[in-house]
Amino acid sequence: MKKTFWIATLLIFVCALTFAACDGIAQGGEADHTHAFGEWKITETATCLVTGREERTCACGETEARVIPPLAHTEAVDASVAPTCTATGLTEGKHCAVCNTTLVEQAIVAPVPHTPIVDPALAPTCTATGLTEGAHCAVCNTTLTPQSKIDPVPHVLSVLAAVAPTCTTTGLTEGTRCVVCNTTVQPQTIVQTVAHTPVIDAAVAPTCSSTGLTQGEHCAVCNTTLVAQTTLDPIPHTPIIDAAVAPTCTATGLTEGAHCAVCNTTLTPQSKIDPVPHVLSVLAAVAPTCTTTGLTEGTRCVVCNTT
Question: Which of 145, 166, 278, 293 has its CA 20 to 30 A from that of 125?
Fold first, then answer.
């Protein structure tokens, strides 16, 4: 339609110029003069938006002008845009690369449907919440069906038995623990130790051969010493004299000694005394006869009668 407009304008302009020339002849110009115009010269360059103008001149000074039609647009392709699940697309279009006039409008293409993926349900436990089943788009990650939280389930309890205290260890109160997650639900508290059960450790009197002990105490349950026993030194010995024994010509003697009357320990040892010499008497010789034997001279101890 624009092109038709410019052509019509050009025709009007040419007619106007012709009318002006004819009017000049009618007013006294030389009616028999024939114009000899030179080459056309462009005075205004045509584009794809506006017409141009070119002129030529006769030697008489007469000028003739004409309109140059607009140039054709220089088409450039506007690429199509594929729609996604989050954005519209566009059809292919065209515009002029020179003046940017739209030649073929691009039409909007509606978004494509989402590609759903199931978000699986998550069962709750006694320590964590669960989730209902949901869905999201595999392409744009948009949530299609939101997942709802499911409250945790109750703990499955087992009893933690109470522990009775003793005189050496603390006890515990009864508690509870979950058998699934091992969480302590009812903690056990410490029960203090009980008192010892004292038993007397009897004193031991010292003797001359062994130490003694003071009285003490220990616990009848755990055997812990409550009152320690102290060692008592031994008492002195009770000495008895071991009489001396005089030696003889047949037996040794002993010096005087001593021992303890209680434990019989030797306090002063007795030493041996060598035997004394024999007290000799002469045994006279006996002369033999024709009927009896004789004897040589000998000796005998007058004390022990040993020959």
Answer: 145
